[in-house]
Amino acid sequence: MTRENAPTEGRRSRSWRPRIPTLPEDPPPGPFRPEFWRSPIRGPWLTSVLGLILLVGVPIVAITGLLSYAAYNPWLPLNDLTPGKGLLGFYLFDWPTNPPWLYRLTQGTHVVLGLTLFPVLLAKLWSVIPKLFAWPPVRSAAQALERASLLLLVGGAVFEFVTGILNIQLFYVFPFSFYPAHLYGAWIFLGALAVHVALKMPRVVSTLRTRGLRDLRTNLADTRPEPPDTSGLVSPAPAPPTISRRGLLAFAGGGALTVFALSVGQSIDGWLRRTALLAPHGRVYGTGPNDFQVNKTAASVGIVTAQTGDAWRLEVMGPHPVRLSRADLLAMPLYTYALPIACVEGWSTQREWTGVRLADLARMAGAAPGDTQVVVRSLQRGGVFSRVTLSARQVADPRSLLALRVGGADLSLDHGYPARIIVPNAPGVHNTKWVRMLEFGPVTA
Ligand SMILES: Nc1nc2c(c(=O)[nH]1)N[C@H]1C(S)=C(S)[C@@H](COP(=O)(O)O)O[C@H]1N2
Ligand SMILES: [Mo]
């Protein structure tokens, strides 16, 4: 029985069709009308210049960010926080221990440059905002695809910058784990960016060819709108200018420089550190040689002196397990190296660490450095900081220490007393504090 001759529906018209609401031809009032956007400086030139600045900076932020992902050695057991990464882990490699300052440089660059570019990103978004309200919202399949890719581009960019900034401010308001979200968000953003650059580059080139850089010399009085075009950026009803294009660029650049000046100090030792007013870790955390940043204090993770006092023993597991007191460790050959601690959140500082070589501890437990990796366990229970796997290369490096002292003084409780890991060129998060156990074992990957 068909729908038409069903008894109860017999009288309904045969031409019945679902009513698809159609959008009016004319845009609704407000931001959907091109005349709503009146800034006379919007246009392909301004957008191209801002886009080119980002095109230089964003790849540096992306590459240093992806390097940071590799620096965690997520191919080792316990280290991988993104087990679902699949092909996105394709570039992983055994992170080197040389040069020892490399991660300090790449991660400082990632964070400080990312912060610095944020005002430029905001200016770029401002310059294209009329496009967000294009009417009709969908004109053709091709245009729908382009708009969808812009959603991923703008959404991805905002997501990466905002999660990054919240994370370095230790402000974990988002309801997901930062580390996988920031990685997957990066790949989405980079994919959309590649499409965007390919689509827009011809226009950027032709705009700069015809218009050149003369707007960098044009003052407010001589500022004119760009000729009407099909970009959707030039206002059809421009208001008189209140700022020149170079004024807008100077404003965004000034914002970027301010952010840079107030955060770069966190990655530099010496008096410049005090200029890092935007850094969340720019405070005082100890006395004497222990006066440097602490991410998590002992109190904040429930470490009490009863665990770290004379009863503390280091369990060294391997073919011949040993238990060592702090006095036993201090009686072993001690080595001192100046090595940075470089937090994934951007701050870093170089210190003189004194302690026992991981390689010596491996040998003591009957394992051969070179063919041995180690699982480090902390007194701290639970969470990503409580354990980490260090690679065979990291164990074998003579500068990799179980540190007992810093700058000649005993480690403070907040810096990991009785003993902490220091590995050259490792991300700070792998320099486990309050070490309880070292499990030397064969190479697994
Ligand atoms: N057990 C434990 N170890 C840890 C941490 C922690 O929270 N718990 N923080 C790590 C991080 S993220 C960094 S950057 C360094 C910070 O070292 P600091 O507190 O001595 O400056 O320690 C690492 N080791
Ligand atoms: Mo860190």
TrEMBL record:
Pfam families: Oxidored_molyb. Residues 1-31, 219-238 are annotated as: Disordered. Residues 308-440 form the Oxidoreductase molybdopterin-binding domain. InterPro entries: OxRdtase_Mopterin-bd_dom, OxRdtase_Mopterin-bd_sf. The chain crosses the membrane at residues 45-72, 110-129, 150-172, 178-199. SUPFAM superfamilies: Oxidoreductase molybdopterin-binding domain (SSF56524). Keywords: Membrane, Transmembrane, Transmembrane helix. This is Membrane protein. It comes from Planotetraspora kaengkrachanensis.
